[in-house]
Design goal:
By secondary structure, this protein is an alpha+beta fold. It has 4 domains: about 60 residues, no CATH class; about 120 residues, no CATH class; about 140 residues, C8orf32 fold, CATH 3.10.620.30; about 110 residues, no CATH class. It is built from 14 helices and 18 strands. A 5-stranded antiparallel β-sheet has the order 12-11-10-9-13. A 5-stranded mixed β-sheet has the order 14-17-18-16-15, with helices on one face. The relative contact order is 0.09.
Length: about 525
C-alpha cells in the first residue's frame, strides 16, 4: 500500500510539473518555440519557423507527413540543414501541384534539381582522405550583399563557411577538396544549392557533385562537376562576357531599371530558342552563348544580366507541373515574378512578366530554398505591357479552287528607344536590300515562297518607311496578300496547306525587318 501511495505521489508531481510547463509555455510562446527547436534538433530535424493555420509533422526517416492542402510557411525541410534562424518571407507555401498550367507550357520547363552522388567510405578511408586532401580555397574574407545574394544569407554560420569554400574553389576550378567544418550530407547540399542559385556566372559548374562520407555521417570529400567549358576556361569566359556585354551595352543607356529589365526580357526572347536537348541547358552560358536552353538557362541569364545592371534579380526554383525555374526581381520597393521562358511564345510575350504571387499561384509553385525569397506583391510595374496577339489566328487549310490558303499572323515588335534598335548590318543587310513599295514586297515574298517550295523555313525582308510597314500590316489583316501573290505561288508549287506568321522589328533609320515564319505542306 505504501508503495502504491508513493507511486501515485510521483505521478501527481510529474503531472503538476508538466501542467506548470504547459501553462508557462502558453504565457511565454518564445520559450515554447525554443523548447520545440531543441527537441526537433535532437531528432535530427531542422526547425525553421512555425506554421500558421496547419499542423506539420515529420518522421525520423526524413519523409514529410504534410496535409494535402497546406497554406502558410513550411516548418521542416528534410533535405536541408544549416539554415539560419531568420524570419521567413510572406510567401504562402502550398504543397499541391499547380492545376492551371496551360497545355502549351507543360513542355516548357526543364529545370533539373541538384544531383548528389553520396559515396560511403570506412573510417580508415575517411581518415586517409583527411590526411591527404586539402580544403583548397576556403574563401575567407569573401562577403556577399544580401540584396543580391539572398541564398547566402539563408544559411547559418557553418553553412556560409561551406558556401564561401564551394564558391571560391569553383572559381579556382578546384574540383576536389575537403569541406570545412564537419558537415553531413544534408548540410553540404544546402550550401551547394545556395551557391548554384546565387551565382549564374559560375556557368562551368554543373548542378551536380559527389561527396564521400564516413559512418559518422561526416563528409570527408566534395567533388564538383565541371562542364567542357572548364577545359578552355579562358576562351569560354571571353565568349560568355562578350555575349552578355552586347546586351548590357544597350541596356545601360536606358533611363530606368524597368526599361532595362524589359529590354533584357525582350532580347532574351528574341535571342534564345527553347530546346530540351540543349547542351549545358542548366547554365546561363547555354542561353547567352549557345542560344539554346531550357527554363533554368533563361532564368540564370536573366539573373546574371539584371545583377550586372545593379538590379536585384533572383533564381527561383519550383514546379509548374514539372520542375521549373523563373525569376523574382526587385523594382523600387517591391518584388515581381518574371517567367521569360513562358513569355518566349509569339503573341504572349508579357503574359508572365512582372506578376504577383497571386497571379502566379494557379501555374507556379516555389520549392526548396526558393520559398524563403521575398513574397511578390508589387503593382506599380505590373501590367504596363500587353502581349500582342496575332491579328489572325494562323491555321492550316487546303489550297484548291474553292479554298484559300491559311491567313498569316502578324506580330509587331517595336523598341521605343532609337539607340537600342538594331541596324541593317546586324542582319548582314545593306540599303541595296531595302524595298520601298508594296508591289516590290509582294514580288520578293512570292520569289521566296517559290524558291523554298514546301517545308518549314523563314525568310527576311527589309523595307523602308512606316507607311509601307502599315500597308503590309493592313494587307495581312484584310487578306489582300493572298490574291496579290500567295494563292498563285502555293498552287504552282503544289502546296496542300500553309501557315505563315510575321514578326516586324523596327530598325534604325526608319527601316523595318520582316521575319516570315513559314510552314508549307
Amino acid at each position: 500500500m505504501r508503495i502504491l501511495k508513493g507511486f501515485l505521489f510521483v505521478i501527481l508531481m510529474i503531472t503538476a510539473v508538466f501542467s506548470g510547463v504547459i501553462l508557462y509555455c502558453i504565457i511565454r510562446p518564445d520559450v515554447a518555440q525554443a523548447l520545440a527547436e531543441r527537441f526537433n534538433n535532437r531528432l535530427g530535424l531542422v526547425y525553421v519557423s512555425s506554421v500558421s493555420g496547419a499542423s506539420v509533422s515529420e518522421d525520423t526517416s526524413g519523409n514529410s507527413l504534410l496535409p494535402d492542402d497546406i497554406s502558410g510557411n513550411t516548418s521542416y525541410m528534410s533535405d536541408y540543414e544549416g539554415l539560419a534562424e531568420f524570419p521567413l518571407s510572406d510567401y504562402e507555401v502550398t504543397y499541391d501541384e499547380p492545376s492551371g498550367v496551360p497545355e502549351e507550357y507543360l513542355s516548357k520547363t526543364g529545370c533539373t534539381p541538384v544531383s548528389v552522388n553520396e559515396i560511403p567510405v570506412t573510417d580508415s578511408e575517411a581518415e586517409e582522405i583527411e590526411n591527404t586532401l586539402s580544403a583548397g580555397n576556403t574563401g575567407d574574407g569573401l562577403t556577399f550583399d544580401g540584396l543580391f545574394y539572398p541564398y547566402y544569407h539563408m544559411l547559418d554560420e557553418e553553412g556560409q563557411a561551406l558556401y564561401r569554400q564551394i564558391y571560391a574553389n569553383a572559381n579556382d576550378l578546384t574540383a576536389s577538396f575537403a569541406p570545412v567544418g564537419e558537415p553531413n550530407v544534408k548540410r553540404l547540399r544546402t550550401a551547394f544549392v545556395a551557391v548554384c542559385n546565387d551565382h549564374p556566372e559560375l556557368f562551368w559548374m554543373n548542378t551536380a557533385y559527389s561527396c564521400l562520407y564516413s559512418p559518422s555521417g561526416k563528409c570527408s570529400e566534395m567533388d564538383l562537376s565541371f562542364s567542357r567549358t572548364a577545359d578552355d576556361h579562358g576562351s569560354a569566359q571571353a565568349e560568355f562576357e562578350s555575349a552578355a556585354e552586347a546586351i548590357l551595352n544597350n541596356a545601360r543607356n536606358l533611363s530606368s531599371d524597368y526599361e532595362k529589365e524589359k529590354y533584357i526580357h525582350q532580347t532574351l526572347i528574341d535571342k534564345i530558342t527553347y530546346d530540351l536537348n540543349a547542351e549545358m541547358n542548366q547554365s546561363a552560358y547555354s542561353a547567352l552563348v549557345n542560344g539554346n536552353t531550357v527554363c533554368a538557362g533563361y532564368a540564370r541569364a536573366f539573373q546574371y544580366l539584371c545583377t550586372a545592371l545593379n538590379i536585384p534579380a533572383y533564381y527561383c526554383a519550383g514546379s509548374a507541373g514539372e520542375p521549373h525555374a523563373w525569376n523574382i526581381i526587385k523594382l523600387g520597393d517591391d518584388y515581381y515574378n518574371v517567367d521569360t521562358t513562358w513569355d518566349d511564345t509569339p503573341g504572349r510575350e508579357f503574359d508572365y512578366f512582372n506578376k504577383s504571387d497571386r497571379i502566379f499561384r494557379p501555374t507556379h509553385r516555389r520549392r526548396e530554398l526558393s520559398v524563403y525569397l521575398p513574397a511578390c506583391s508589387g503593382e506599380e510595374y505590373s501590367d504596363l505591357e500587353q502581349s500582342v496577339q496575332p491579328t489572325d489566328e494562323a491555321s492550316s487549310a487546303s489550297v484548291d479552287a474553292a479554298e484559300e490558303p491559311a491567313p498569316s499572323g502578324d506580330h509587331l515588335i517595336i523598341s521605343a528607344y532609337e539607340n537600342t534598335l538594331n541596324s541593317l548590318e546586324n542582319y548582314n543587310l545593306s540599303e541595296n536590300d531595302l524595298l520601298y513599295d508594296l508591289n516590290s514586297y509582294y514580288k520578293e515574298a512570292d520569289r521566296n515562297i517559290r524558291e523554298h517550295d514546301t517545308g518549314s523555313y523563314e525568310f527576311l525582308t527589309a523595307i523602308h518607311g512606316r507607311e509601307l510597314m502599315e500597308q503590309i500590316r493592313n494587307s495581312n489583316r484584310t487578306g489582300a496578300y493572298k490574291d496579290a501573290y500567295l494563292q498563285n505561288a502555293l498552287m504552282d508549287i503544289g502546296a496542300k496547306s500553309c501557315m505563315i506568321k510575321m514578326q516586324i522589328e523596327e530598325l534604325r533609320g526608319e527601316n523595318y525587318l520582316i521575319r516570315h515564319l513559314v510552314e508549307i505542306k
